[in-house]
Structures are given as C-alpha cells and as structure tokens.
Amino acid sequence: MKKRAAVIGYGGMGAGFHCQHISNSDVCELAGIYDIDPAKRALAASRGVKVYDSREALLADPTIDMVTVATPNDVHEEIAVAALKAGKHVISEKPVTLSMESLERMIAAANAAGRIFSVHQNRRFDVDALAMKQLHDSGEIGEVIDLESRIHGSRGIPSDWRGMKEYGGGMLYDWGVHIIDQACMILGYDVKSVRCSFDHITNQEVDDGFRLWIEYASGQKAYLEVGTYNFIAMPRFYMRATKGSAIITDWRVPAHVVKCKAWHESDVLPVVNASGLTKTMAPRDSVTVDEYDLPRPVSDVHDYYRNFVRAMDGLEEQMVTHDQMRCVLRIILSAFRSAETGEAVVW
Fold this sequence. Notes:
The protein has about 350 residues and is an alpha/beta fold. Helices cover about 30% and strands about 25% of the residues.
C-alpha cells in the first residue's frame, strides 16, 4: 500500500518537484498541502490538490504517514520537529537547517518519536556526479588525487528569499549544499579542513558565489565553486588520479577519460609552446594513453523517495543518514567561518 505524503510549502520545490513526484509515485500518494500564503493554497486547490486550512490541521490528520518540508530554510526546524512530534516521518528540503544545534534538535525529535528523518539530497542522482563516483570507486584510473566541481551561471542570485540572509539565503546554502554533498558522496566524509572565500557581485547581503577547498584525512582534496556571474562556464567536473584524468565539460555530456598506459616515452620530441620549446608539456598520443567517453550512468531521482519509504518500513537504511547530514552542514558552517576570518578551519 502506498504511503500518504503531505507537503508543507507550495513554492518552486514544493509544487514543482515534490507534489509532482509524489503524485506520480509508485510508493506514495499526495495527501495534500499547506502553505502560509493564501494565493499558493488557492493555486493548489485550482489544480485539484487537497489543501489544509492550517499546518496543525495537516499534522492532525491520522492518515498522513510522511511530511515533506519545502519552505524557506530558516523554518525547517520548527516545522520538522512539529511533524515528528505528531508522529510523521519527515523529509526536509536542503539545507536541512542553519546550525548544528538546530540539526541536533531535529535528530533528537526523530529519535524520540521513532520516526525516519532525512534531508532531500536529490542531486546525488545527477548522472555527472554518479560518473565521477563510478570512476573513484572502480579505480579505473587509479586512486583519485583531487576533484574539481563547478556550477556556473550568469543570471545573478535569485531575487526571492534566497537573496536574504534572514531566510538562509545565498549560494552556499542553495547550490553549495548540493555539490558539497556530491563531493562527500564521491570522496567520503572524513574531512580534515575547510577553506572558503565568497563573491558579492550582485548581492551584498549574502554570497552570490564562492570558492571552497576541502581536504580529507585520506589526503584527497576537493575544490568546489559556484558562480552566478560567469558568462563562460568552466567544466562541470575535473578529476585527477594516479593513472589518468577525467573531465565533464557540461552536465549534458558524458565523462571523457584519458587513461595512462605507459608513463615514460624514450623519444619524446620537444614541441613549440608559445615562444619556446618544451618536452615537459608535450602532448601525449595513443602510444601512451587511451581516450574514451564513459557511458552515462542510469539514474532515477525518485529512488530517494523509494528508499525513504522502505526505510519507514524497516527494509533499508535511509540513504541520507544523520551523520552525513551533520558532516555536510558542518562543512557549510566551517566555510562561513573561513570566509569571515580568511583562514582555513581545521577539524
């Protein structure tokens, strides 16, 4: 039997993503929504969606099994804790909340209620990130040395609440949480240090871009960058490993791999580079490297909901764990501190 799911917050993600996915789901069905905005409640009703008159009325409905919180970031804790205390399983939109103390209160409420609580990290299902994870885990090009991940746009920061500090706005919280989660999905969660700097090109109140360096206890490193004033986008992913490199120039194309099969060439000829000769930077050829595109992984973002429902039934561990949520949020908070002090934050 399908689980009955309700959505609190009928904005872009609430209406455009969660309600759509739940309505077409094979594991849950849409029980209804609540939003504090009367216009959004009216819009939902005009689409045939059941609308609750209040959050309290929604949480008091005994037929609702699970609640997805899709509101501005600053009220995630309040709503999630109320839903957990009402006996509902809870999915929070990302970022899960804005402080470690807040997250611990949410986790404590879930444990006390005996309910599943997780954050919606839907971009774990992006095929570009999955391709990088495949290369890392398989060892196909050796042990990974470092990973670069970028998201570039040219339209500035959104003009809604995402541009306001009091609601938890800014690109670190918006896109940053995604690419941080992806980097940890690929490289792991044993973080050693975090360093970050912010852009304030179109918005002085919150960051409209950032550069973030993460060093792991393994020695691997990640460089993550989000920009909203980049009219030429740099590659989406770049990976260096002990036996080769891989690049994804754009999320719409497959990973291109160059795998080293012979390190030394006894007869490397110097090449003309700018105004001089070089052997060090001479390009390689098919004698010493193989080049190929990696088939794009198969992915279904609704597997997040499928896993969540199976976790509710005790059939699987939840995909996004409490410890993973702690790690990602701690990286974000460390990045804010580093940007403020100009120094790396060592864990």
